[in-house]
TrEMBL record:
It comes from Mucuna pruriens (Velvet bean). GO terms for biological process: defense response; signal transduction. It holds the Pfam family TIR. This is Disease resistance protein. InterPro entries: Disease_R_plants (IPR044974), P-loop_NTPase (IPR027417), TIR_dom (IPR000157), Toll_tir_struct_dom_sf (IPR035897). Residues 25-165 form the TIR domain.
Amino acid sequence: MAILSRLIEPKSLFTNDVLLICADDTLAGFTGHLLNTFQQRGFHTVVRVDHGELDREAIQASMLVIINISECYLFSPPFLDNLAEIVGEFTKERKARLLLVDVRHPTGTYAQALTPYNNSVEPHRIHKWLNALTTTHAFVSHFQRCGVKNEEQCIEEILQMVSQHFASIIGVNPRVREVIGLLYLESDDGVHVVGICGDPGIGKKTIARGVYDLIAHQGFHNYCFLDNVGNILRERGLVHLPRMLLSEMVGNSVHTVGNFAGTVGNNYSELGNLVDTIGNNCIEFGNFEEGMSVIKHTLNQKKVLIILVGINHSDLLKPVVQLTDCLGPGSRVIITVQDKCLLESLGIKKIYEVK
């Protein structure tokens, strides 16, 4: 079951969040990078390389279809026929589930790109292709890479579009909307903490994940969603928390890694090298405080989103709440627990109780 359809539309029959359709020329490049990024951000994403035959089953099973239009795509009449058919079907169904992304570099007009076909292809067929390539309305969105400085920025903008696209397609679960309201996203004053509490299996994680998917790309420098935090810290110790945060935060940064610096003890290094070392399990903080000093040095001027799921013991929750002292203004922290009293005992006032 697709992640977003499960979060916001539980009875949906979709099995994929996103389907990427491309030609061979972008599979190892832009499309591959987009796939990896979507998967890292929690979108269940699959890729189909267009070889001239439509994978109708995959299209129908996907909440959102993204077609990456490359030079190879424009040089293949069967690809263009498929594109025209897909656009026509989505328009006819009046379902806003299609995004066309122009990945050519440099880009030119589609009319110019189709000029070589003028003497070999029927005019009405070319007209269908051109209409599909230039269609932009409520049911087919179009993203031009023109003016985008680099691939990383392009992918980030597409992610923002996709988040907004899902919200407009399926709406927002009322519980998710209520938690977002508690976060007071309009303000960059201080760090806001929201606790979500309720019995096991009642949907705390689902709500937290829904919030994350909808707001993670809305102005945060870094963001992470950590599941099963309580059990992990019980097994590996509290010192493991800063390691998890550093690893996830850098992977989900909208800035280059070189912009960050971390410190372990008295030794300073680029955070990129630090996280590589953490990923290879070659570094251990001496204690929790040492790890948190790295977090503070790295993130105290950054607006971040952190969601921690499943912390149900006061001895773990109290140090986690101290994390807020290490974050920059405008940051948001969401913590899920079973017992509301745990949150109240630590002075967390914004609490959403799931019943």
